[in-house]
Write a structure and sequence with these properties.
The protein has helices spanning 2-12, 18-30, 56-66, 70-84, 92-221, 224-250, and strands spanning 49-50, 54-55. The protein is an all-alpha fold and 251 residues long. A hairpin with a 3-residue loop joins strand 1 and strand 2 (54-55). The longest helix is centred in the middle third of the chain and has 130 residues, at 92-221. It starts with a helix and ends with a helix. GO terms for molecular function: proton-transporting ATP synthase activity, rotational mechanism.
Length: 251
């Protein structure tokens, strides 16, 4: 909530002269890329200490200049200086604090390992649960990546499918066009065949009419005498042919 107030105030004073510009630059400082850098992970265990509270680094820092006994002499001299100058006065509270410190140290030494093991167990359980959640999330994300790659592959193949469908549609259109052309050709051929048959019919009927007309005119032009003469001529020809056939048969 406080950050929202700060950002709103910064936006409000953006146009209020040098002071507003300075506040805006300060807000940009707090949101710079360096401030958004990831925080380093905390160590699982603390550093080494001496006597429970004094860091080992302090002894390592003083060893080159004071030797091994330097840190102890520094502590003793500092304590002597505080007591001699009465910066700290020993009273009943000092003894009470010493007793309480002794009880606390005893409790830490006595129950500290068990409490630490219990805390470590709880911490391990929490870390294991977090790891399981992380592994599950990683597996789901990996599956999502695989699904996305598969969908991309399908999207790439969709163009080929569209091309195939386009070709099929073009083939269907071409087939329909050829079928219609064939149908038109057949219809035109039927009409032409009909015209040819009609012309042939007209020609045959004209021929038949002409033959009938000629035959009728010929028949009507023959007189009875011509008919008798032609019959006699036919009989004579038949007799001559019969004699020739008999001569050939006897020869």
């Amino acid at each position: 909530m406080l950050s929202r107030v700060v950002f709103v105030s910064a936006n409000a004073v953006k146009s209020s002269g040098p002071l507003g510009a300075g506040l805006v630059q300060l807000s940009h400082l707090h949101t710079s890329p360096s401030s958004q850098a990831p925080v380093p992970a905390l160590p699982d265990k603390g550093g080494k200490t001496r006597h429970g509270i004094i860091p080992e680094e302090l002894f390592q820092l003083l060893y080159p200049k004071t030797g091994v006994t330097g840190p102890y002499m520094l502590g003793a001299g500092l304590l002597t200086y505080i007591l001699s100058k009465e910066i700290y006065i020993i009273n009943h509270e000092t003894f009470a604090a010493a007793c309480m410190g002794t009880v606390i140290i005893y409790g830490v030494k006595k129950f500290g390992p068990d409490v630490a093991a219990f805390a470590d167990k709880l911490n391990e359980e929490k870390v294991q649960k977090a790891q399981e959640v992380k592994d599950l999330a990683m597996s789901s994300l990996a599956q999502a990546i695989q699904d996305e790659k598969k969908e991309q592959w399908r999207a790439e193949g969709r163009q080929m499918l569209f091309d195939a469908k386009r070709n099929n549609v073009a083939m269907l259109l071409e087939t329909n066009r050829r079928e219609r052309v064939h149908m038109v050709t057949n219809e035109v051929k039927k009409r032409l065949d009909y015209q040819i048959a009609l012309q042939n019919l007209h020609r045959r009927m004209e021929q038949e009419h002409m033959v009938n007309w000629v035959e009728k005119n010929v028949v009507t032009s023959i007189t009875p005498q011509q008919e008798k003469a032609s019959i006699a001529k036919c009989i004579t020809d038949l007799k001559v042919l019969a004699k020739i056939q008999q001569a050939k048969a006897t020869a």
